[in-house]
Design a protein that fits this description.
The protein has about 170 residues and is α/β, with parallel strands linked by helices. The protein has six helices and seven strands. Strands 3-2-4-5-6 form a five-stranded parallel sheet, with helices on both faces. Helix 5 links the parallel strand 5 (about 95-100) and strand 6. The longest helix is centred in the C-terminal third of the chain and has 24 residues, at about 130-150. It is globular and about 50 Å long. The protein starts with a strand and ends with a strand.
Amino acid sequence: MLHAHFKTETTLGTVVLAGPESDCHVVGLKLLEFFLIEMGWDVVNIGVCSNSREIAAAALYHDPLAICISSQNGHGLKDLALLRDHLNMHGLASVRVFVGGNLTVGSEKDPNRVREAFLSRGLEVIESFEQAEEVIRTIATSWRATYESVVSSESKYDISHVTEYELSPVT
């Protein structure tokens, strides 16, 4: 079953932002927040030094289209190792998680190996703010198409007055 969170004409949907547990670098996180707000998204920035439980709790409360993590100290893989498990425990398996920034320490900078390591934990690597916004917009478009398909089969619902909304599975 799907439920809709209807958005006003001024927002496209909700995105949760966070910095991983051991990372106190706030600049990249704030720049991503400003960028997404400027692009029309409702942003919930829970801040830096956020552990996996806190990020999952924010996602449960705010029901976002996506979660974006900004990591600068290179320890994000270790810090976020249990994030997907916590999301799954809360019934949020369908919420996509994107990670960007400085994702490694030392000399290991092979982007394919880094991407594979994060993907093995259910986290997707993004290369830029623009890529993050593009992927989130694609998710919103997909949810909108799914919702319109469901609603069109049940004529008792009139959504002609709604301009933007987000959907998520009911848990």
